Each structure stands twice: as structure tokens, then as C-alpha cells.
Amino acid sequence: MTMLSIADLSVTFGGLHALKNLQFEVEEGEIVSVIGPNGAGKTTFFNMISGMVTPTAGEIIFEGESLLGLDPSQVTERGIARTFQNVRLFANMTILENVMVAQHCRTHQKVFGALFQTKAFKSEEDAIRKYGEEVLSFFGSRLVGYRLDQPASVLSYANRRRLEIARAMATRPRLLLLDEPVAGMNPRESAELTELIGRLRSEWGFSIVMIEHDMSVVRDVSDRVVVLDHGETIAQGPYNQVANDPKVVEAYLGRPVGSESSTEEIRP
Amino acid sequence: MTATSESVSISQTPGIAWRKQTRFALIGALSSAFVALAGMPVGLDRRSIVYPVLSMGYLSLLWIPFVLASLAGSETVLEGMTARTRGKKDLLAGGLVGFGSASGLALLMLLIQNFDLRDPLVNWSPQLLNLLAFNQPLAVGMFLWLAFGSALGLLGGAMHVLPKKIRSHIRNVVLTVLAVSVLETFLTDLLEGFGLEILTDYIYYKRGGLEIVGALLVAALALLVPLLVGTKLTDAKQKVVSLPADERRRVNLVLLAASAAALFVLPFFLGKITNELLANVGLFVLLALGLNIVVGLAGILDLGYVAFFAVGGYTTAVLTSPNSPGFSPELPWPVALIIVILLTGLVGLFIGAPVIRMRGDYLAIVTLGFGEIIRLLFLSDWLSGWFGGAQGITNIPGVNVGIATVKGTDPRSVFLLSVVLRASAVYVSWRLENSRLGRAWMAIREDEDVAEAMGVNTTNTKLMAFVVGAVLASFSGAIFSAKVGSIFPSSFLMLVSIIILVVVIVGGMGNITGVIVGALVLIGVLGGPKQPGLLQEFSQFKLLIYGALLVWMMLKRPEGLVPNVRRTRELHQEEFLQDAWLKGEIDTDDQEDPQ
Q1: Are residues B244 and B203 in the same domain?
Q2: Does B151 share its domain with B179?
Q3: pLDDT digits (tens, 9 = 90+) for B36-77
Q4: Given an 8 Å threshold on Cβ–Cβ distance, is B455 in contact with A115?
Q5: Residues of chain A with C-beta less than 8 angstroms from the C-beta of B589
Q6: Gap between the Cα atoms of B458 and B443, Å rounded
Q7: Which domain holds residue B478?
Q8: Which domains does chain A have, with CATH numbers?
Q9: How high is the ipTM of this complex?
Q10: Share of chain B above pLDDT 90, in %
Q11: Which of the four, A115, B221, B362, B527, has the lowest number of CB atoms within 10 Å?
């Protein structure tokens, strides 16, 4: 079943076409990687799905309903959660609070409950806390225990990335948008995270769209790879097919800046 | 061999840091001259601290060399470093700073003697010159100032040389004598309530200030009490902290109950002046608690907060006063309060809805505008049929609570009423802070875009903060109009908004205790925009002191007097991370696999 389908999506910033007539689909339970050189429009693509940028033309349909014109919070409520390329945690809130606040759109208690400490309020708070801890324990012992009450700013870079994923998971999404989840991690950590991404689908039942530059992660985890360049899809399909596509190789090789590292990455 | 040891000893006791000392001396010279020209010595001369030796006017100048010298000598010692051993050089350095500060005054005296700049500088007067010269010839006065300055500077430098124990005794004695003298009105009032006025009559001079004997007595007490009590207090605290969690909870509850009881009983022992003061503090605590939710928790910089205070006050006036020009239902106050809460909430919603979509500076400026608009509406001829224009609404009856009537002539009852409302405001703040809504506010304060992306409806959540803040301000407005008995647009100037904001910032943004402490310190001691504080003599310099305090706080303690944990973390992130690192709690990335 098609979960997310995007048709003829375009966005322009002034004269710049960040995305041109994009067609894109995600099946339920699929892991799709979006790759492409810098400036290809990958993050804009994510911003558009999550409602932070309004497209100039086109349609985004999630589970049969259009997402156009919705606020980011409403998109999250529909079941799409995202992480950010440059980690954006609530740095001065504790680790537990970070995942607690993410359950905002799944919970309902308002001023009245808080003031009179109603039964419903207390049980909801307990549930929020419990689910938060459950989400955090997905990453083993890294984010639980005494860490729960520490501010997010003490965490290491890799753990911040993990907490961002945990925070997105806490919104109880069905589709998870991961923006460069392993950026800045060392090979061992990214291998571990690759495995976790697989478990996110098998155990938590999320469908995943992932932007990633690390080709070994893309190869290991994705069912399908979509290649963007200059705001257009230039190829899509299974990893092996895409990696050998002459158009893709050209898109990476044709760039004078940073072309070397890109080619190395694309032929692991 | 000798050469090496010499070089080591040199590096351990470096010479005087000339640049730093000169800078502080210059700051001292400039601030002395500024204080003198602001009129503090002349204006405060009549009020003695210790009669007849020291008046508040002289004190306003004398603290400068001392404080600056001790500041100039202080050095930050980081964890793991050993502090430098202090010596004669520090004394000399302090003396130099003191001398420099005093020379600023000496120069000013010379200038006043020879030039007349009275036109722009009102206080550039022979009176100031006389005062500065101690009614002696100019040269004698100048010499005296330089001598005093150097001596005080030496003392300031000595604060770093003396052993810690002696230092703390000196500090205790000086601060206690100053506090006892400055808080004279309050203490007299308090002791009179307990029938102990004989004590205050003995130590205080009849026209204000301590007698010399009284000062010595107070100093002796300040020296003896810590020696006798010693570490018993801290020991007791340590004991409570080390108790198991549930027992500690019980002790805390007992302490809370005791202080609550004290709050209710104390007013009956206090005189009118102190009660009046506490009633004013109560009004501002309410306002500051409300603004704390808006600014401290949700991070919305609202500079027009006075608008809700005004709406609360005017609505109460219209609903309860028989003199209300347009519509006068003469409702009892409690009924009016309910309508006030609903109406102010609604006004909060109306003002908030357009404002809340803006961010940062733009939002601050727009709220500033709305604050003024509300005041001008109450002032306008257009609405004078309802609100009486500049004449306002008079003859507002007090609050009838059966046994007594709460009104301005009886500040005690006003204070007690405000305690009740304050308790509810504290409860509201506390519960909301630790709820789903409070977390959402915090997230918005941290990063609004991300909060939105994580499913928090930022518009509604921010609006909620605005409305809750407005309702708390309306409590204050309702008490205010019942207390004063009449209400005019001039009570709701922009200055009120600013002062409430200063209270929140100085007290500690986002911390309930901090806000209460802030209101006590600023409104209680210095006074509100129109209300006098404990230091009534300072009323004309109130804004100057407010400003200086705010600048100092921003430089030295931006998190406020009683800080919020989160804000401290935010403002001192490096220190916090360093501590975490020293405790071994810092997180490190996994090492790369050796394979």
C-alpha cells in the first residue's frame, strides 16, 4: 500500500528551483534512501514533507489525505516525524524531558488537569514518562539510568543523534524522516545504527525515508534509493542498479568540488 | 640552580598588575564623580547611618574605593589550580585603586571650585563642594578624601590577604550594622509590635540612624552570634539533607507549614508602614509570577504586561464602584473577581492572537505598543463615559469578607488577601511548570521551530502562556483597585511593565522563589514605580539604582539571584560541562573498533 505519494512537487526560492516536478512514493514498511550531491534539494524535500516549507506546486498525499497547508505540528500529528541534519535538541532540557515533550500531540491534558492533579492527568504523566523511557531504552543503556535527568547538552555527538531519533520515535509516527542519521559517527557506530534502523522497521513498524551520504549505510539498509540532483530525480531503484547508473556517476563525478570523495563513497 | 629557583619565585608572586589596577582606579574615579554629580551625597546627607559619624550621603561615596579595590584584587581560581599566595603587594594594589578612586573626587572638587557648570549639571553646587570638603578648606578636604580613599582601598585589598575566617567576620559586622541602620523603619515597626520598642529606642538616634553606642552593640552582636551559634545551623541543614527521602519530605512540609503560618501571623505584629510595604510587595509578586510564566517559561518577551494589570484594575473598579460613570452594577468584590478573571483572559486572547505569531524583538515592540494602547484607551475622551478618562474611577469599596473589610486604610488585610491570591498563583505556576503544558513552553523557549516540528502547536501553546499570565496580572489589578480605592490611567505607565520585568530578571527568570525574592529585594527595599520602599530616602535615585543593579546582574549573575537550574545551565554551559567532566559524567563517543 502506498503510504506517502508525492506528485509534481516543485518549490522555488526566488529564481532558484530547489525542487522540480518531483515524483516520489513510499510503500508501507519500506526504507527509502535519498542521496544526491550537496545542494541537490534533499533537505528542502524533507522540510516540505514536514510542513516547514510550502511547495509552489504539486501534491503531497499521506495515507490518503493531503498534507498541503498543514502546520508542521499537524503533520507530526498525522504520523510523520523527522530528525534534523544539524542536531537540534532541546539542549537545556533533560534527556527524558526531550522525549516527553515529543509526545505532546499524542496526549491531551490541559490546564485543568494540571491544576487539580486529576487521576487522568497523573496516569497520563506516568504513561508519558514510561513511554519515554521505553523509547530511550531502544538505544541500550546509552540514554537511560542516570542520564535521564541530565541535560541533553552533556551528550556526545553520536548520542545526540540517537536522542534525536528517540525524540522522533516518541511522537509515535508511522513514517520516520531521518536526515543524515550517521553523519559524524565513526564506522563502528554507524554500523550499529544501521542495524537499529533495520530494527526500527521490524520492531516498531516504521516506514523510513533517510537522507544519507554514507554509502555503506545506504547499501545495507535501503530497499530503494532515490537520487536527486538539481532538484530533480535522476534515478531510482535498488542500490546496485542506481550505483552503476551512468547518470548518477556523472552527477557525482561532474562536480569539480568534492568529486573525489563522492566517487569513492559511491563504489564501496 | 639559584637562577631557576629565583625565576620560580618570581612567577609565583608577580608584581602589581598595573593595567588592571589602573582600570579599576579609573572606574572608581569616574563612578565617584558620577555619584557626586547625580546628587546622592547631598540628597542623602540628612539620613545618618551612625549618628553623627557617618551619613548615608557619605556612604554613597565611601563604598566605591573599598568595593573596587576588593574587586580589583579578586582572581578566578579554576578547579585544580592552587590560589596564589597573597602578600603586601595586594595591599598596595588595593591602596592604589582606593587612591585613584578618591583622586577622582579630589579632581571634581577642584573643578567645582574653579568652574561653574551648574547649568547642565544641577548638582554642581557649592553645597556639594562644602559637603565633599567636610566643611573644611578645599585642600584639607582633598587630602582627607585621598587619605580615606587609600585607607578603604587598603582595606579592600586586605580582604584578600586576611584569613578567610576574619574576613567573614568583618563582612558580617559591616553588613549587619548597615542593614540594621538602613532597615530602621522596619525594625522599629516590628519590635513595637512585640512591645520591645525600648530596644530600638536605645540603639537608634531619634532622627534616624544608629547611635554610636547602638552601632557598637550591634557590631558586637554580629561578631558574637556566629561565634556562639557557630556551625550549628549548617550542621542542622546537613542533617536534614542526609535524612531519607520521605523523612526529609516531612521536615520540608513542617517548615513550609511553619512559614505559611508565620506569613499569616506576622502582619498582626507589624505596624502600618511595614504592612503597607508588604502589601505592595504582594501586588508585585503576583504580577511578577504572571510575567514569569510568559517570559521565564515560554520565552515570550512581553513589554506591555501592565495592560493586563490595568484591565484587571479597571474591570474591578467598574464592577464594584458606585461612582463608575457608565455602568455600575456594584457587585461584591469576589463576584467581580470571577468576571475580572474571565474578561482579562479574553483580553489576553485578543491581544495575544495577533502578537503571538511574531518573534523576538518584533514581538517585544508590538507588546510594548499594546501596553500603551490600553492605557491610552482608558485615558481617552472616547471611553471616558465608561472609565472616567483622566479623572479615573473613585470610591471603590474594599473587599468585604464578613469579619473585616479589606481596603487601603488597613494594609494588613490587603496583605493577607494578597497572600491568599499569591499562594494560588504560586500553585498555578508550580503545577503548570511540571505538566505537559510546561514542557511545551520550555521546548518553545529552547527552539520554536523544532518544538513545532515535534508536534507542539506553538501558536496555541504560546497563547495559553499569554492568557495564564494575563489572568495572574488581573488578580493583582483587582487587589490594587480595592486597596487604593480609586484608579487612574497614570497608575499604568510603561515603567510598571519594565519594573516587573526587572523584578523577574533580577530575581531569577523561570524560578518561582527567585521571583518572590526579586520582588522583596526590589519593591520591598527600593520601592515600586510609585510605591515607597524601605529605603524611602533613595526614592529619587530608584531608577538609577535599578539600572545599575540590572547592568551588574547581567554582567556577573545573568541567571538572577535565585536561578532556575535550566537557565543557569544555558548561561554557564561551559562551566557545567567542565563540572560534568570532572565528575566523570561527560559522555564520550565510542572508540573506533581496533579491528
Answers
A1: yes
A2: no
A3: 998 888 888 888 888 888 888 898 899 999 999 988 888 777
A4: no
A5: 156-159, 185-186, 189
A6: 10
A7: 270-494
A8: 2-266 (3.40.50.300)
A9: 0.90
A10: 37
A11: B362
